[in-house]
From TrEMBL:
Organism annotation: Geodia barretti
Keyword Transferase part of the UniProt annotation: yes
Highest taxon of the lineage: Eukaryota
Protein name: non-specific serine/threonine protein kinase
Residue ranges of every copy of the Protein kinase domain listed in the record: 1-245
Amino acid sequence: MSSVLGSACLGAYTFCARQHGQEECDSKGLPLTPYSINVAGRFQSLLELDHGGLCAYLDIKRIRNERLLVVSEWYEDSVEKHMQSQQTNVVDSLRRLAHQVLEALAYLNRHNIVHHCLAPDNILFTPQGDVKLHNYGLYHMTDCGRAVRFPIGSPRHLAPETIVKSSPSLSPKVSVCVDHSHWCIRIFMILVSSSLKVDVWSLGVILLELYLGTQLYPDLCITSSLSPLFKRILLLAQNFHRQCY
C-alpha cells in the first residue's frame, strides 16, 4: 500500500506479533506484556535514525489480535526490478551500489542495528538513482525475531549461520557435514549471527547475482529443504580450509 508524496511514497506493511499463552505470567504472577507492545516500544528508536541511505520510519500502530501496521518512506524502483528487467549492470554501477549500501549498513552498525533481511526488493532507488535501504528495522523491533513466529530474511541471501540459528532442526545436519569441526561452526554462529557481517554476506550474494545476471537458487523458498544449500556451502568451506592449512 502506498500513496504518492513528492518523489517518495508512503509505504505500509503489517505483521502479527507472537501471542503469549493464556496461562503464562511473570515471576509475580502478573500477565506478561504483549509482544506487540514490546515491538512498538523498540520501534521508537528507529524514529531517531537519520541517514540519506535509509528509508525513514514514520509510525507504527497496534491493531487487534497482536497485529501491527508499520509506515515508512518507500520508492517504487528497486534492485529486484532491475534484475527482473535484466538491465545491464557494469562494474562501475555495482561499485556505486555497493558503496552506498555499505555506508547505510555502517550507519546502522554504529547504532547496533542489523538489517538481517537485506534482499533485492529491500534495496530501493530514488528518482535520482541513489540507494535507500528499506525494512531494515524489522529484525530490531522484533527483538532479533523473538517477538514473531515467522523467519526474518530471504533464504537466498541470508548468511548460513543465521538460518541454522533460527532453525534448530538443521543443526544436527550441519554438525554431521563438518564432523569434528562442528564446534567451529557453532562458535562462528554465535559471533556473527547478530553482527554487520551477516548483512555483508547478503550484499555479496546480491552483487554476485547482479554481476552474473541471474538468481542463485531461484527455486529456493522458506519452505524448501535447505540441506542441499548447506552441504554445498560447507563443502566449499572445508575445501578452502584444506587449501589454507
